[in-house]
Amino acid sequence: MNKAKRDAIIAGNWKMNKTPSETTALINEMKPLVAGADCKVVLCVPFVDLDAALKASEGSNIEIGAENCHFEKSGAYTGEVSAPMLKEMGVKYVIIGHSERRQYFGETDVTVNLRTKAALAEGLKVILCVGETLEQREQNITAELVAMQTKIALGGISKEDAANVIIAYEPVWAIGTGKTATAEQAEEVCAIIRNVVADIYDTDTAEAMTIQYGGSMNAKNCDELVAKTNVDGGLIGGASLKAEDFSVIVKAASK
How far is residue 249's CA from residue 235's CA, in Å, rounded to a whole number? Predict the structure, then answer.
């Protein structure tokens, strides 16, 4: 991390977990554990939990995000939620392009770009996910793959809007598998992403952008990961569902 240049952010991605009542209970448990953190703390929760999360986090340092949004403002898209809907609720962040959305729900680099633009147009901060599969890593095309994903996702997005983008490097092979990229691997790819952002915009924009690591970051490995210069926090899956574990990661990013 380099807090002199950019924000350190620990964001939880709850995925399809927790009912509204469970959401309230977990956030109330988390609040005293993460109070006073020297990093930003974000919880991205299922759509049905957003209202409960916003109410439970009120007055605390926890900010609330959604796990996805559609690229149209409204229309015949049964089951989808738009960026204006999120904005009116008071949501601040939204995850776009998570590998599970790409794998199970047909997200492509092009739709990720459209959703990113839609979210930014409403003033939301975007946590933009990129990352390679195990096969792609073994083919030694990680750098090319994440560069392509980053370039397409940021296509047509101004330098000013890019200031509201956080990129999360999520190696697909390390999500929910228990496998974690080494701190050196995470640092290497986060640095590659930062160089790509510099090529798209300029060095100042790249140095100011928060680039997280996501992929089984947990209470045991967080210190080593966030100690790396280009790893500005994490997008946390399973560990964000346990207040104590999540608080350990927040403390690591607060050092």
Answer: 10
Residues with a known catalytic role: 98, 170
For the chain, domain boundaries: 9-253
Please state which CATH number belongs to domain 9-253. 3.20.20.70
The tokens for 96 are 């776009």
Q: Indicate the residue type of 173.
A: W
Alpha carbon distance 238, 12 (integer Å):
8
| Spatial contact of 15 and 41, defined as CB atoms under 8 Å apart | no
Reported pTM? 0.96
| The two three-digit tokens of residue 254, written as one number | 């607060």
Kindly write down the DSSP assignment for every residue of the chain, as one continuous string.
--TTTS--EEEEE--S---HHHHHHHHHHHHHHHTT-SSEEEEEE-GGGHHHHHHHHTTSSEEEEES--BSSSSSS-TT--BHHHHHHHT--EEEES-HHHHHHH---HHHHHHHHHHHHHTTPEEEEEE---HHHHHTT-HHHHHHHHHHHHTTT--HHHHTTEEEEE--GGGSSSS----HHHHHHHHHHHHHHHHHHS-HHHHHHS-EEE-SS--TTTHHHHHTSTT--EEEESGGGGSHHHHHHHHHHHT-
Phi first, then psi: what are they for 178, rounded to 5°?
85, -15
Write out pLDDT tens, residues 110-155: 999 999 999 999 999 999 999 999 899 999 999 999 999 999 999 9
